[in-house]
Description:
Elements: H1 16-35, H2 46-57, H3 61-66, H4 68-83, H5 85-91, H6 96-111, H7 120-137, E1 140-141, E2 144-145, H8 152-168, H9 172-201, H10 210-227
Antiparallel strand pairs: 1-2
Helix pairs in contact: 1-9, 1-10, 4-7, 6-7, 6-10, 8-9
Amino acid sequence: xxxxxxxxxYLICESKMIYALLMFAAGMMGAYTYVMRGxxxxxxxxxxxxxxxxxxxxxxxxxxxxxxxxxSAYFLGAFLSELLPTPVKRIGFLRWDTYLIxxxxxxxxxxxxxxxxxxxxxxxxAVNFIASMQYNTFxxxxxxxxxxxxxxxxxxxxxxACAKVLRKKDYEAVSRGLLHLGMLFVFALGCGILxxxxxxxxxxxxxxxxxxxxIVLVRLVYADLCKEHDLLGEKPSGH
Length: 239
């Protein structure tokens, strides 16, 4: 499916701007856990699985088994975000996507109150959990498959788009490649901005992520209550 030539109606929660704001916030979360909370990336689990394997391979069984905790939190986030939309839909007030952003914002707000003296693991697991829920909930931006919490697939898609332009002269791939490149840019921008403010804000630096989250929430609530209230039962693309 080519970005830009699909006439299908898309929900506000599928808009490219929503995805860009979520990527911006995710960049901040990734920088926060790395800079302020133990030097780890919690937006995805590849690193945790690799480190677990390395640690177990060194015979450090207890240390290696610890990584089952963040991995399990990520699993639980995906599990619950797959189960909850159906009962939420029956309520008929807000979409699941909107409730999730409310929950994420609340978790980030609480994290900002957790002193740096508290073991980093608690914050890491919380970010694992909400990142997984976000990743599983927001799947396609106007028909284009995307991840909103990490960058690997975006980088891959930029490479694919460049290859299609060179090999097949598929210039429609340019728009898709630029879309993924833009997502990489806003993610990196979020990382840079949060890192810059960490020295002054310390544990409260995560509250900066509430700015893009707040914009997303306002747009989603407005859509659910007004503009798209009659479409509350409609599933976003990819679900």
